Structure formats: structure tokens, C-alpha cells
């Protein structure tokens, strides 16, 4: 695998960047990211209620999955990693720098996700904890009245992460009162282009829906082209049937040209046994 090293990665950090990229993509250039930032982003509603098993309710369920499953890395907040990292030290982590709760609806206030931890915090934590931190993640709500702040935060975070040889992943979600159709294909093509301009290695999006003229995968192809050499991964969304999940992922990658997936609820809303089965199926799809 030839790794494209961005020019904002200094020569002294080249080997660290290649090491992190290789580890996170398992030497394939494709990403299977376990998104586990939901305890802030969605609060408690994704972790209980029928048909969800009681074992899912504790945050440790996320770490049990990540420590055993064939994933590239686990993305969550630094504080949660600090709480469980001693027991789960072998997981490759992506530290999510910003997060917000869903408590304030968009019709009351456009979304703003401020930086909670800096890249310096991440580096200090990595050194003191000895844990494997491969990169950082940042959410940008494009189209929000606060997009200028989030774009600045993301740009600085990507640059600073690259300076240290860390990967940078942007969660790019068009959202706000000005956004009428957040998964419009043309809007998403513009959104991934913004992520490329910010220097992201990977950009996570919610995929467009099929139209009468094009399938989801065909629409993704145009979106992926707009991202250039920033790789696009699709979000999993709510709980899905395993066969449906794999079939969609295959089309996204083979027809749409995406570079993998970032899945959360589609994995952790299963029991540990079933979650590992889903992960193994997804891993086979992404890495082969």
C-alpha cells in the first residue's frame, strides 16, 4: 500500500503518519471505524429500550466490542477513553475533539459543536497514558450560522494533527435552519470538497437517498469524485438488518467508490456476541 503523506506532515513525522495510517486501515487504505461518540451525541436513548439488551447500557460495552472486533479503530471522547483505557489498552483510538448533545433542537438554535479537547491535549494524553492514538476526529455542521467557528476549529485541528503524524477525520454534516435537504447529493459533493480543503484524510457523511434517476451508489460516485484524494466513508445510521447493511456497503464501495464505513448503532445495539458477528462481516466486506 502506497500512503499519500500530506505536505503538512513534517518529515520528522512521516514514519508516525504512515504507521498510524497503516494501523487504522489495516494496510488496505480502507477504513472500518467504530463510531462510539453517542453517549454525548445521542445521550442515553440509543443504549436502552426494546429490543436492546441490558448489557448494552454500560459504556464498557463499547470497549468490549472494540477490543475484540476486527475494526480499524474506535472513535470516542478523550474522557471516556481515560475512564476505560487501562482495561482496554490495545484498541487503536481516534479521539473525537468536539461533541454536542441533541437537547437543543435546530428550530431553536443552529448547531454548534465546540472543541472540548485540543490536539495538544491529545498528544499529552497519548504520552502519559501509553495508549495507541492514531488520529483525531472533528464534526463540522456545514450551513449552520456557526460554521465559521467550526471550520476554523477543524482547519486548525487537522493541521496540528498532521504536524504530529496523526490522521484527521472530519464528520461533515450539513445542518441548520438554512439546510432544507441535508443529504442532497449536490450539497454533499460540496461538503466533502470542503473537508478536502480543510486537509482531512477521511470524511464521514450520511449518504444520499436514491432518486428515480440514480441509485444511492451512483450518487455517491459523484460525491467521492468531489472529495479528490480525501477518502469518503459513509455513516451507518440507525440499527439495520445485517444482510441489508452488508449489501449496501458493498454497493457503496464497488459502485460508489467509498473507502469504507463508520458504524455505531448498527454495531453496538447488538449483544457482544452478535456485534462481533456483524463486525466480522463488515470487515470482510471492507478489507477484501
List the helices and strands and how they pair.
Elements: H1 14-25, E1 31-35, H2 38-41, H3 60-68, E2 73-77, H4 78-84, E3 93-96, H5 119-129, E4 133-140, H6 147-163, E5 167-172, H7 185-197, E6 202-205, H8 216-227, E7 231-235, H9 242-254, E8 260-263, H10 265-268, H11 272-287
Parallel strand pairs: 1-2, 1-8, 2-3, 3-4, 4-5, 5-6, 6-7, 7-8
**Helical amount:** 40-55%
Major sheet characteristics: 8 strands, parallel, barrel
Strand order of the largest sheet: 1-2-3-4-5-6-7-8
Name the CATH superfamily assignment: Aldolase class I
Termini gap: 14 Å
Q: Output the number of helix runs.
A: 11
> Uncertain regions: pLDDT < 50 for 5+ in a row?
none
- Rg from alpha-carbon coordinates: 18 Å
CATH fold description: TIM Barrel
> What order do the helices and strands follow?
HEHHEHEHEHEHEHEHEHH
Main attributes of the structure:
288 residues, alpha/beta, TIM Barrel, eight-stranded parallel β-barrel, 11 helices
Amino acid at each position: 500500500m502506497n500512503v499519500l503523506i500530506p505536505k503538512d506532515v513534517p518529515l520528522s513525522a512521516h514514519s508516525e503518519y504512515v504507521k498510524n495510517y497503516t494501523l487504522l486501515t489495516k494496510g488496505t487504505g480502507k477504513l472500518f471505524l467504530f463510531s462510539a461518540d453517542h453517549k454525548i451525541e445521542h445521550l442515553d436513548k440509543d443504549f436502552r429500550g426494546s429490543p436492546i439488551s441490558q448489557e448494552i447500557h454500560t459504556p464498557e460495552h463499547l470497549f468490549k466490542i472494540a477490543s475484540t472486533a476486527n475494526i480499524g479503530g474506535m472513535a470516542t471522547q478523550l474522557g471516556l477513553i481515560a475512564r476505560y483505557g487501562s482495561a482496554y489498552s490495545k484498541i487503536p483510538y481516534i479521539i473525537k475533539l468536539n461533541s454536542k448533545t441533541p437537547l437543543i433542537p435546530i428550530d431553536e438554535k443552529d448547531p454548534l459543536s465546540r472543541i472540548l479537547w485540543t490536539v495538544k491535549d491529545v498528544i499529552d494524553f497519548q504520552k502519559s497514558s501509553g495508549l495507541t492514538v492514531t488520529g483525531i476526529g472533528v464534526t463540522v455542521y456545514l450551513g449552520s450560522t456557526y460554521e465559521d467557528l467550526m471550520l476554523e476549529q477543524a482547519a486548525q485541528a487537522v493541521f496540528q494533527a498532521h504536524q504530529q503524524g496523526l490522521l484527521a477525520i472530519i464528520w461533515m454534516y450539513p445542518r441548520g435552519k438554512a439546510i432544507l435537504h441535508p443529504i442532497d447529493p449536490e450539497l454533499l459533493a460540496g461538503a466533502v470538497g470542503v473537508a478536502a480543503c480543510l486537509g482531512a484524510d477521511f470524511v464521514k457523511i450520511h449518504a444520499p437517498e436514491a432518486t428515480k434517476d440514480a441509485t444511492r451508489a451512483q450518487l455517491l460516485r459523484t460525491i467521492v469524485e468531489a472529495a479528490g484524494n480525501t477518502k469518503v466513508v459513509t455513516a451507518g445510521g440507525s440499527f439495520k438488518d445485517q444482510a441489508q447493511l452488508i449489501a449496501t456497503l458493498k454497493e457503496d464501495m464497488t459502485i460508489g467508490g467509498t473507502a469504507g464505513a463508520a458504524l455505531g448503532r448498527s454495531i453496538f445495539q447488538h449483544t457482544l456476541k452478535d456485534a462481533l458477528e456483524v463486525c466480522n462481516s463488515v470487515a470482510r466486506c471492507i478489507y477484501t
